[in-house]
Structure formats: structure tokens, C-alpha cells
Amino acid sequence: MTADKLQTRLSPLKSLQLQMLAWLQEADPQIKQSVTGTEKVSADLRLDIYANAYRFRLVEALQDTFPALHTLLGDEDFFNLGVAYLTARPSKHFSLRYFGHELASFLKGSDAYCDQPLLSEMAQFEWLLREAFDAADNAVIDMNALQQIDPQSWHSLRFLFHPTVKRVDLSFNVPQIWQTIDKQEASIDMIENDHPIGWCLWRKDLRTLYRSMDVDEAWAMDAMLSGHTFSEICSGVCEWVDEQHAAVRVAGFIQNWVNEGLIQEVMT
Questions:
Q1: What span, in angstroms and rounded, lies between the C-alpha atoms of 114 and 66?
Q2: Does the 136-268 domain belong in CATH 3.90.930.50?
Q3: H or E stretch covering 264
Q4: CB–CB of 225/158 below 8 Å?
Q5: How far apart are CA 177 and CA 188, in angstroms?
Q6: pLDDT exceeds cutoff 70 at 175
Q7: Looking at 85-89, 173-177, 221-225, which range is the least confident one?
Q8: What distance in Å separates the CA atoms of residue 124 and residue 104, rounded to the nearest whole number?
């Protein structure tokens, strides 16, 4: 169905709203037929004023979501980034909450920013903080639930993580930089790690938390998030520990995850 045919089936208000959205996102001139001007303010000027206000509001939303990235870039450069981003990735959702979910990938793939990988990592980290804070508030299990499990069934167990749990590997000291900015402390230098470091983010008691992980724990968490069994994960961590200690190592991970409130269900 063409846009014209679709609009004939919509209410006049809805049709006008779609025309305005097409103007804001694609400079479609059809809306000009519905906008009148005056001697002092032409129809084109009115539309430009509205479009500029729309862009400013979206950039402000990005500033709220990515405060550390804003600090790193400064007002002018962040505004330019925001305009470039909304031009390349127009908002597709009625809520501003979801505008910005592609900013990290935009930074990574943009010729203007791809040589500054710290920026894309910071955007990714801040977006995951937002996702962790906004995720569903499901119940979690405690150590008593683990103790009730039949030892003979452990090999086939799968664990479902809480919706707030997020994972990311970072090549730079992004969390430390974010923390100094958030606490308004003296700035610290950017440091590139010898290898990417695994981080886990989650929400607990209305606080968003994060911590780094050893490489085998990060691998184990990724495997568990992908639905692998306890036995399969034990086999996998043998890349870092000997076979006789693998089960104890993975069981230790799970105990820590339960104590931190990261697991909501055990699946047999």
C-alpha cells in the first residue's frame, strides 16, 4: 500500500502527523500544503523552526542518556554528533527512551569517529547502564534454592539470568573514566588494555552496579546466557583450569552470581 493510499484511510490529524514526521526525517515537502505562512513568517520558516526544536530535543535526550560521552566531547562536538546521528539514524519510536540505542554502532562505523574507539565504548557502556536500570524487576533465587538441587542433576542444569544482567567487553578503562565523570572527580587518562576485559552490569536495590571479570568467568557467563548446561560450561573452562578443578571453579561463579542477585531461575 502506498503512502498516499494509506493516508486516505487515516484521520486528518493522523495524516497530518505522518506528513510532519516525513518532513522532519526525510524533508518530504508534502506537509507544506497544510502549513500557511504570514508576511513576517513564511511557511518554510515555520517548518524550519519546528524542525530545529525537534532536533534540539532529541540531542537533549542523548545528553541525558550519555552524560559521560557528553563530557568527553564537550557541548559543541556532542551537539554535532547528535545531529549527525539523528540524521543517519532517525528516531523510530514514540518514546525518547529508545533513541540512542544505535549510537555506539554509529560511532564505530562513522568516518568522523571510528578513529576514537573510546567514544563508541563509552556510548555502549552508558547504554547498557540505562538498559540495566530500566529492565524488569523479576525475583531472584537465593543460596537455599541451590542447596535444594539434587547433586545428580547438576550436570544438566541451566541458569536463567535476571533481565537486568548485561555483558560487555571493553578495550579501554571506560568504567573508571565514567565513574570519575559521574562523581565529578579529577579526570584520569585513557588507558587501552592489553586485551579486552569482560564486564558485567546489573541492577540491585535500585542501584546500577558493574564489575570486571576474569576471562574464564566472562566466558562462563556468556555461555550460560546462551543456554549452555553446567556440564558444558565446565568443559569449556578447561581452557583455563585443569579438568579436576573445573566444576569447583564454575560452581564458585554461580554462587557469586546468586549472592549478587544475578540469577532468577534454575532450569532442570
A1: 18
A2: yes
A3: strand 263-267
A4: no
A5: 6
A6: yes
A7: 85-89
A8: 5
Residue 209: in which H helix or E strand, if any? strand 207-213
User: Which residues have a Cβ under 8 Å from the Cβ of 212 and sit 6 or more positions away?
Assistant: 175, 197, 198, 199
Mean pLDDT value across residues 85-112: 88
- Rounded CA separation 17/82 (Å): 23
Give residue 228's region: left, alpha or beta (phi > 0; psi -120 to 50).
beta
**CB of 250 within 8 A of CB of 220?**
yes
Alpha-carbon 252 to chain mean position? 28
Q: Which residue has the cell 568467568?
A: 217
More confident residue, 32 or 23: 32
Mean pLDDT of the chain: 88
> The C-alpha cell of 9 is what?
484511510
Strands (E), 76-140: none
Q: Coil, strand, or helix at residue 267?
A: strand
223: its cell numbers: 555461555
Integer Cα distance of 220 and 232 in angstroms: 10
Residue with cell string 524487576: 137
DSSP assignment of 150-202 equals -GGGGGG-EEEEPTT-EEEEEEE-HHHHHHHHHTT-------EEEEEEEEEEE
Whole-number Å distance between alpha carbons of 176 and 158? 33
Instruction: Domain ranges for the chain, please list them.
Output: 136-268
Rounded-to-integer distance, Cα 86 and Cα 57, Å: 11
